[in-house]
């Protein structure tokens, strides 16, 4: 298993048989960092699961092609069209000419604000649909929490790996490979914070109805849960995470940072705030 010592951002690590997470993270002061991961399933027909963020495009592509030859990629499963998931989609489509994009009508429409997605390379894969990728049949399923209406998670019954997308999002003190590296308090508080941050509407929900949705998702019975904004969950932390998720409708909404917070951060920065600019690594 990947340890803290062998873990580096944008260096893919194996989380299950022929399944790799491409880890990245953003600093998120004052709450630490947020993971920004993607995944690769290197089966007989390799699958990219999301395409990373544009801020690290060249590094992300290099990381992905260290796991799989782009000419071998047969499928790109796009969970939704947010920039942290679809940010390198055009570059990936260009470098993977043999790949079919698994997406939705609404995602294509939302991305049309920025680019035309080649619909001749698309296949619609909505909640409940499956796709045969040669040596396994992947299942798309809407996760309990999401911040974009097109979101579908992806379950691989061959490895029992679940890509939970934005569900189980958490801040972390520093980037880590496995959620077991968090203390019990960090784990609980991170799940409560990340869940309410991603889906503030969870406070509006009927807890019993939401609980049934969580139960249904949990019945996938994943052994390994990876996600864009969470280190990998395994073992007892999976059931614990589902229990914390079920509690979200009962707890008060997360109080957002206010202008007073921003004023305080600016005072501390004392003129050292950098000017508006693209991230230097953006290509
Ligand atoms: Fe999202
Ligand atoms: Fe996300």
Automatic annotation (TrEMBL):
Pfam families the UniProt entry points to: Lactamase_B
Entries under InterPro entries matching the protein: Metallo-B-lactamas (IPR001279), RibonucZ/Hydroxyglut_hydro (IPR036866)
Top-rank lineage group of the source organism: Bacteria
Domain Metallo-beta-lactamase per the UniProt entry, residue ranges: 35-208
Official protein name in the record: Metallo-beta-lactamase domain-containing protein
Organism lineage: Bacteria, Bacillati, Actinomycetota, Actinomycetes, Kitasatosporales
């Amino acid at each position: 298993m990947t340890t803290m010592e062998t873990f580096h951002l944008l260096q893919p690590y194996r989380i299950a048989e022929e399944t790799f997470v491409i880890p990245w993270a953003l600093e998120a002061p004052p709450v630490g960092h947020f993971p920004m991961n993607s995944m690769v399933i290197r089966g007989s027909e390799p699958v990219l699961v999301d395409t990373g963020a544009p801020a690290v495009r060249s590094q992300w592509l290099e990381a992905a092609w260290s796991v799989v030859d782009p000419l071998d990629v047969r499928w790109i499963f796009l969970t939704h069209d947010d920039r942290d998931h679809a940010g390198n989609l055009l570059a990936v489509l260009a470098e993977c000419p043999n790949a079919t994009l698994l997406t939705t009508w609404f995602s294509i429409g939302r991305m049309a604000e920025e680019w035309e997605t080649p619909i001749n390379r698309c296949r619609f894969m909505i909640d409940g649909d499956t796709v045969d990728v040669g040596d396994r049949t992947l299942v798309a399923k809407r996760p309990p929490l999401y911040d974009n209406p097109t979101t579908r998670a992806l379950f691989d019954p061959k490895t029992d790996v679940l890509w939970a997308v934005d569900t189980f999002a958490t801040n972390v003190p520093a980037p880590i490979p496995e959620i077991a590296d968090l203390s019990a308090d960090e784990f609980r508080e991170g799940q409560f914070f990340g869940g309410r941050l991603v889906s503030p509407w969870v406070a509006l929900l009927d807890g019993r109805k939401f609980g049934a949705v969580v139960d249904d998702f949990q019945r996938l019975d994943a052994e390994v849960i990876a996600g864009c904004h969470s280190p990998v969950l395994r073992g007892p932390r999976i059931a614990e995470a589902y229990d914390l998720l079920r509690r979200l409708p009962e707890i008060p909404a997360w109080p957002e940072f206010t202008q007073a917070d921003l004023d305080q951060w600016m005072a501390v920065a004392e003129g050292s705030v950098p000017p508006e600019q693209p991230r230097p690594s953006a290509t």
